Amino acid sequence: MIWMKAALPVAMTVAGVGAAAVAVVAPTRPPLSDAVANAWIDGPTGDVAVAPGVVTVTAHATAEVALDSLELYVDGDRAATDGDLERSDRLVLARFRWEAQPGRHLLVVRSP
Predict the structure, then answer these.
(1) Is beta strand 38-43 parallel, antiparallel or unpaired with respect to 91-100?
(2) pLDDT digits (tens, 9 = 90+) for 15-74
(3) Which of 17, 51, 96, 112 is deepest in the core (most CB within 10 A)?
(4) DSSP string, 58-75
(5) Which are the contacts of 25, defined by CB distance < 8 A and separation ≥ 6?
(6) pLDDT of 5 over the 60 cut
(7) Beta carbons within 10 angstroms of residue 93's beta carbon
(8) Terminal CA-to-CA distance of the chain, rounded, Å?
(9) Buried b (16+ CB within 10 A) or exposed e, 15-51
């Protein structure tokens, strides 16, 4: 049955349904070494087209532990790292310079 759970999201994505369900069992409070950062992109937003060239991507993140840097991934590849984060308690602000190319792109910000 585990194989079916792993295969179902792939089959649904290939068929164009685009929905998947995954069950994860985790302790109620993870150890500090496994703490997860919550990160989000402030701009540009997904509903805005940007011109090719240098684009400033801004993002915020928060975590239970201090964040030293954030990384910007474009289409699955690391495009930039910001190690000079602005801080307000546990909230950090990152700015990235991205050389935007024509086309649609997936931008993801995460802690390393």
Answers:
(1) unpaired
(2) 333 333 444 444 444 444 456 789 999 999 888 889 999 999 999 999 988 899 999 999
(3) 96
(4) EEEEE-SS----EEEEET
(5) none
(6) no
(7) 15
(8) 33
(9) eeeeeeeeeeeeeeeeeeeeeebebebeebeeeeeee
Q: Which residue has the tokens 């991507």?
A: 57
**Tokens describing residue 96:** 């990235």
| The residue to which tokens 């500090």 are assigned | 32
CB contact at 8 A, 81 and 100: no
Beta bridge partners of 94: 59
Would you kindly state where each structural domain of the chain is located, as residue ranges? 30-110
Neighbours of 110 (CB within 10 A): 14
pLDDT score at 81:
97
Q: Hey, what CATH class is 30-110 in?
A: mainly beta
Nearest to 54 by CA among 107, 104, 102, 98: 98
Cα 102 to Cα 84: distance, rounded to the nearest angstrom: 29
